[in-house]
Amino acid sequence: AQSVTQLGSHVSVSEGALVLLRCNYSSSVPPYLFWYVQYPNQGLQLLLKYTSAATLVKGINGFEAEFKKSETSFHLTKPSAHMSDAAEYFCAVTLSYNTDKLIFGTGTRLQVFP
Amino acid sequence: DAGVTQSPTHLIKTRGQQVTLRCSPKSGHDTVSWYQQALGQGPQFIFQYYEEEERQRGNFPDRFSGHQFPNYSSELNVNALLLGDSALYLCASSLATSGGRETQYFGPGTRLLVL
């Protein structure tokens, strides 16, 4: 069965600092991986996705993630945090691009301090 | 270009009642999926509708049912509401293509409170 684990339910950084949100996956077959962001009282917005092409994936708002099969990881990074990045971030996995059954982690709340 | 819309935005029901939530997919999309997001948790897949049929289902009881209309909009129905059904219900739409399905786009959700 597929699953994702997000290490750290809360992450706090200063504005301008590096953002690192961790995600490890478990899958018996090559996975497709996603990062979504959820702002307060809103739905989910796709940040980026990995679908077996380049292992380094660039997304919106300056975020990127690297697929590391040996570490079963798909960590999300941003070189310099902005106040507007404060939100809940979810990592998700699916078996293939033919299914919409996304399996989400429990989320990481990012706080950005001035 | 209208994105995914959901109605109502908020809803309060009592235990045992029934509720219907509605979703209009993004323009051009033909597939709708529903998710339940309990407080402090990630979304959990309920089911997916394509060509007016339920195609996939998550680990949810039969109290949860749905429908898709010819215009691709969808409804989620929950019968015999329990306190534990209180959650944010998210609708996501996508387009089925020959290579699979394109990216899912999520709506703002309907927040259901069961008292």
Name the features.
heterodimer; A: mainly beta; 6-stranded mixed β-sheet; 11 strands; globular; B: 115 residues; mainly beta
Classify the secondary structure makeup of chain B into a structural class.
mainly beta
Number of strands of chain B: 13
SSE series of chain B: EEEEEEEEEEEEE
Strand content of chain A: over 45%
Quick summary of this structure?
The complex is a heterodimer of chains A (114) and B (115). Chain A is mainly beta and 114 residues long.
Provide an overview of this structure.
The complex is a heterodimer of chains A (114) and B (115). Chain A is an all-beta fold and 114 residues long. Chain A has no helices and 11 strands. Chain B has 115 residues and is an all-beta fold. Chain B has strands at residues 5-7, 10-13, 19-24, 31-37, 44-50, 53-57, 64-68, 74-78, 87-94, 96-97, 100-101, 105-106, 110-114. In chain B, strands 2, 4, 5, 6, 9, 12 and 13 form a 7-stranded mixed beta sheet that branches. A 4-stranded antiparallel beta sheet of chain B has the order 1-3-8-7, with no helix packed on it. Chain A binds chain B through residues 36, 41-46, 49, 90, 92, 96-107, and chain B through 4, 31, 33, 35, 40-45, 48, 56, 58, 90, 92, 94, 99-101, 103-109.
